[in-house]
Write a structure and sequence with these properties.
Distance between the termini: 35 Å
Helix content: 25-40%
Largest sheet: 8 strands, mixed
CATH architecture of the largest domain: 2-Layer Sandwich
Strand content: 25-35%
CATH superfamily of the largest domain: Fructose-1,6-Bisphosphatase, subunit A, domain 1
Radius of gyration: 18 Å
Oligomer: single chain
């Protein structure tokens, strides 16, 4: 298994896909948003064309690998790519600069490569199982990294090592708590109230993959969501693990295609959050 070739491919693909998506976002390429039939669940030709680009590039580079994408589905195999062409489409179609391209590679069902690219900020987040998590950014002051820190030789990206936060107290924590309409709103609000009453600051920026990357980078102390699809969750979960964080087992009992519950956090917060959620 040539992981180095695949990590190079994933990084290049994320940047190319992100550049195409950004052209749509900036209205250099015109598009119209369409509803998927559920309130606030949006899609556009931008999502579909970015995913088609990813599928074409993958077929050229690794024709024997499987791909499962948000917009057009696909297959699961020994080597599987999970791709969300635009995570945070609701933000995207409203002109809000919080969305990303998310790419994960699984080998025999195990998360092996994760790449998340934020085109609006030009920030790239990369993880390779057993070799750490890294970010490349124009503005290093935004990441909790030492200016002189560099990725070691053989690392999966030319960036700076990421580490999760050291926060150990809920009343000092900045948490991400995601919600989409298919989830139980009453259960979501009960948990949100519990987190707020415990003193946490709780946000939902509307792009779970990017919020997971920000947990890995130490910007958020944890991210929780009752259900995430595999193309949204897989890359970010690997990043949090490789950045020293702790995550719930994923996916759930129904398997990869069905997705599952997500809790990813700084280690000192994990047990408390798991107990609060009951997950």
């Amino acid at each position: 298994m040539d992981f180095d070739a695949r990590i190079g491919f994933a990084v290049a693909l994320a940047r190319e896909a992100g550049a195409l998506a950004l052209r749509y976002f900036l209205r250099e390429l015109d598009y119209e948003a369409q509803s998927k039939g559920i309130a606030q669940d949006w899609v556009s030709i931008a999502d579909r064309n970015v995913e088609a680009l990813c599928r074409t590039r993958l077929a050229d580079a690794f024709p024997d690998d499987a791909m499962l994408g948000e917009e057009t589905g696909g297959d699961i195999g020994e080597c599987t790519w999970l791709i969300d062409p635009i995570d945070g489409t609701l933000n995207f179609v409203h002109g809000v600069r919080y969305w990303c391209v998310s790419i994960a590679f699984l080998h025999q069902g195990v998360r092996s490569i994760g790449v998340i690219y934020d085109p609006a900020a030009d920030e790239l987040f990369v993880a390779l199982a057993g070799r750490g998590a890294y970010m490349s950014a124009k503005d290093r002051s935004r990441a909790r990294i030492s200016p002189e820190a560099r990725s070691p030789e053989g690392s999966p990206a030319d960036g700076h090592p990421m580490r999760v936060s050291t926060c150990g107290s809920i009343d000092r924590a900045l948490l991400g708590h995601g919600y989409v309409r298919r989830q139980d709103v009453d259960a979501h609000l009960r948990l949100r109230r519990m987190l707020l009453e415990s003193g946490a600051e709780v946000k939902d920026h509307g792009a779970g993959a990017l919020m997971l990357a920000h947990v890995a980078a130490g910007r958020f102390d944890a991210y929780l969501e009752a259900h995430m699809h595999p193309w949204d969750a897989s890359a970010g979960l690997l990043m949090v693990e490789e950045a020293g964080g702790q995550v719930l087992p994923y996916p759930g009992e129904r398997g990869l295609r069905a997705g599952g519950t997500v809790l990813a956090s700084a280690p000192a917060l994990f047990d408390r959050l798991a107990a609060m959620t009951g997950w």
